[in-house]
C-alpha cells in the first residue's frame, strides 16, 4: 500500500532529448529554411547574380548565419557588375560595428548598406573604367528581410493570401519625377535622344552620357549626380514566411509584379524561377538579359516540403503535390498569423548626410577617426564630420559621422557642389 502510494505521487520525468537534437536546435536557432532557384537567358551577357547562404555575422558562430541574394545588371560593359558582385558584401560588412548583438546588427544594417554601396562606387571608379551596373542586394536574417537597390532591377515579396509588395524603387528617369528633379538640381540635364530633324525619341536620359537611370554603381563618365546611394527597405515577415522574386529589368519590362508572382505560385523555388523567365519570354521575347532569383523563406513549422521529382514521368505528380502543400500551408497559417508584414525601416534619400545619421565621429583606440564610408582611419585634421561646412571658429566639434577627404569630395560631387 505504501509502495503503491509513493509511486502515485512521484512526478513524471520528461522524456530525455538526445544530445544531437539539442545541438541541432542550437545551430538552427529556429531560423527559417531558405530554398531558392535561379534562371537566366542572356542577350548581351551583362547580368550577374550572387547567392550566398552561409554568411555569418560572428566568425565560427553558426547561430549568426544569414543569407545574401543579389542581381547586378551591367551596362556599357561587365566590369562594374563583376566588381560589385565580388566586393559589395565585404564593403557592407566592414561598416558594421564589431561586437554587437543581432538586434543591433539589424538596426545598423541599413546605414552599412549605404556606406557599402558608396564605397564600392568610389573604389570601382578609381579603376578608371566607364561601365556601370544596377544592384539589388537582399539580406535575409531569420524572418527579417533587408533590401538595398540602385537602378531598375526589382525585388518583390509574395506572402500568404496573394499579397504582393514591392521592396525596391525604380530609379528610371522616365518614371521617377523626384529623381529627375534631383539630377537637374545637381547639375545634370534630362532629355530624350535628339535625332536628325530635332525629333526626340526614346526614354528620358541624363546628359552627359545618356544614361536612363538616376542611380547606379560606376558610370564615371556620366557625372557624379548619378549616385550609388541605395533605397533601403527592411521588413519582418509574419510566421507564414514568404517568397521573394528578385529579377533584372528583362523580367520587369515584360511582367508586372503581380504577373510574376502569379506565374510561379504553388511550385518549388527551383522551378519557379524558370517559370517566371519563361513567362517573360512568352510575353515579350528575348530583348534583354533576363535573370530571376526566387527565394522561399519557410518558417520552422513548415520545414517539410514536397519531394523533388526524380524522373520526367513523375514531374507532373510532383507539381500537384507542391500545389497541395502550398494550399495546406495557407490553410494552417490562416489561424496562426496575419497576412501582412511589419515594415521596420525605409529610406530612399540621395543625400548622404541624411543616410549616415547624426552620430558623433567614430574614434579608434589609436586616437584616429574612422571614415564612415571607406572605414579607413584618418587623423582628425585630414577630414570633416559629414554635417560640417568650411571650418570656422563657431564649428561644433561633433556634427555627424567623420568623412575622410576623398569621401567628403565624393559627397560634395553627388550634391552638385563644385570644388573650390
Describe it for me?
The protein folds into 2 domains: 30-168 and 228-345, 4-Layer Sandwich (Phosphatase 2c, domain 1), CATH 3.60.40; 353-414, no CATH class. 31% of the residues lie in helices and 26% in strands. The protein is globular and about 60 Å long. The protein has 420 residues and is an alpha+beta fold. The protein has helices spanning 2-9, 19-28, 79-94, 102-125, 177-185, 249-252, 257-263, 269-284, 315-334, 352-356, 405-414, and strands at residues 33-41, 47-56, 65-75, 132-133, 135-141, 144-150, 154-159, 163-166, 189-194, 200-207, 217-218, 231-236, 242-247, 290-298, 342-347, 362-363, 369-370, 377-378, 383-385, 402-404.
Shape: globular
Multimeric state = single chain
pLDDT under 50 segments (min length 5)? Answer: 3-10, 305-313, 328-338, 388-397
Return the structural class: alpha+beta
The tally of beta strands, per DSSP, is 20
CATH class identity of the largest domain: Alpha Beta
CA-atom Rg in angstroms:
25 Å
Q: Summarize the biggest pleated sheet.
A: 8 strands, antiparallel
Number of helices, counting only DSSP H or I runs of 4 residues or more:
11
Architecture of the largest domain, according to CATH? 4-Layer Sandwich
Look up the CATH topology of the largest domain.
Phosphatase 2c, domain 1
Amino acid at each position: 500500500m505504501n509502495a503503491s502510494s509513493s509511486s502515485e505521487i512521484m512526478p513524471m520525468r520528461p522524456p530525455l532529448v538526445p544530445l544531437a537534437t539539442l545541438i541541432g536546435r542550437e545551430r538552427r536557432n529556429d531560423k527559417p529554411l531558405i530554398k531558392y532557384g535561379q534562371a537566366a537567358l542572356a542577350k548581351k551577357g551583362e547580368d550577374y547574380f550572387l547567392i550566398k547562404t552561409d554568411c555569418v555575422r560572428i566568425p565560427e558562430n553558426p547561430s549568426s548565419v544569414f543569407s545574401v541574394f543579389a542581381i547586378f545588371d551591367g551596362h556599357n560593359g561587365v566590369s562594374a557588375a563583376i566588381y560589385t558582385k565580388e566586393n559589395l558584401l565585404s564593403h557592407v560588412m566592414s561598416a558594421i560595428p564589431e561586437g554587437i548583438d543581432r538586434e543591433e546588427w539589424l538596426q545598423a544594417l541599413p546605414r552599412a548598406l549605404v556606406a557599402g554601396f558608396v564605397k564600392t562606387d568610389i573604389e570601382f571608379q578609381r579603376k578608371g573604367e566607364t561601365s556601370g551596373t544596377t544592384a539589388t542586394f537582399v539580406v535575409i536574417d531569420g524572418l527579417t528581410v533587408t533590401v538595398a537597390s540602385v537602378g531598375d532591377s526589382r525585388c518583390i515579396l509574395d506572402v500568404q493570401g496573394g499579397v504582393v509588395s514591392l521592396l525596391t524603387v525604380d530609379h528610371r528617369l522616365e518614371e521617377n519625377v523626384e529623381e529627375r528633379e534631383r539630377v537637374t538640381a545637381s547639375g545634370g540635364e534630362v532629355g530624350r535622344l535628339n535625332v536628325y530633324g530635332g525629333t526626340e525619341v526614346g526614354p528620358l536620359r541624363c546628359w552627359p552620357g545618356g544614361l536612363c537611370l538616376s542611380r547606379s554603381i560606376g558610370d564615371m563618365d556620366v557625372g557624379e549626380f548619378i549616385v550609388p546611394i541605395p533605397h533601403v527597405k527592411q521588413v519582418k515577415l509574419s510566421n507564414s514566411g514568404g517568397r521573394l522574386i528578385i529579377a533584372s529589368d528583362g523580367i520587369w519590362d515584360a511582367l508586372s509584379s503581380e504577373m510574376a508572382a502569379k506565374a510561379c505560385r504553388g511550385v518549388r523555388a527551383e522551378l519557379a524561377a524558370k517559370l517566371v523567365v519563361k513567362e517573360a519570354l512568352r510575353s515579350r521575347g528575348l530583348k534583354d538579359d533576363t535573370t530571376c532569383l526566387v527565394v522561399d523563406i519557410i518558417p520552422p513549422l513548415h520545414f517539410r516540403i514536397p519531394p523533388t521529382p526524380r524522373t520526367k514521368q513523375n514531374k507532373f505528380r510532383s507539381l500537384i503535390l507542391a500545389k497541395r502543400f502550398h494550399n495546406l500551408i495557407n490553410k494552417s497559417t490562416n489561424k496562426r498569423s496575419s497576412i501582412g508584414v511589419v515594415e521596420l525601416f525605409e529610406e530612399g534619400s540621395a543625400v548622404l548626410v541624411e543616410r549616415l545619421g547624426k552620430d558623433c565621429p567614430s574614434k579608434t583606440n589609436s586616437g584616429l577617426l574612422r571614415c564612415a564610408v571607406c572605414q579607413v582611419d584618418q587623423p582628425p585634421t585630414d577630414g570633416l564630420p559629414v554635417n560640417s561646412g568650411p571650418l570656422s571658429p563657431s564649428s561644433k566639434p561633433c556634427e555627424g559621422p567623420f568623412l575622410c577627404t576623398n569621401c567628403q569630395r565624393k559627397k560634395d560631387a553627388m550634391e552638385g557642389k563644385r570644388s573650390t
